[in-house]
Amino acid sequence: MSHVRVYKLIRRFNEEMEDRGASPLPGRVNRTYFEKYLFEGERDFDVGDKG
What we know:
Elements: H1 3-19, H2 31-40
């Protein structure tokens, strides 16, 4: 997978997390969110802000 594709995915994940009320760090993705999205295909769960 190219770097460009990965950065686009990270931006998309961050936008989705912001829509859910979380405060993502630019260029980083919450591991729980990423694993559920990748392995379980789940997109409707609470990410929460553990900051």
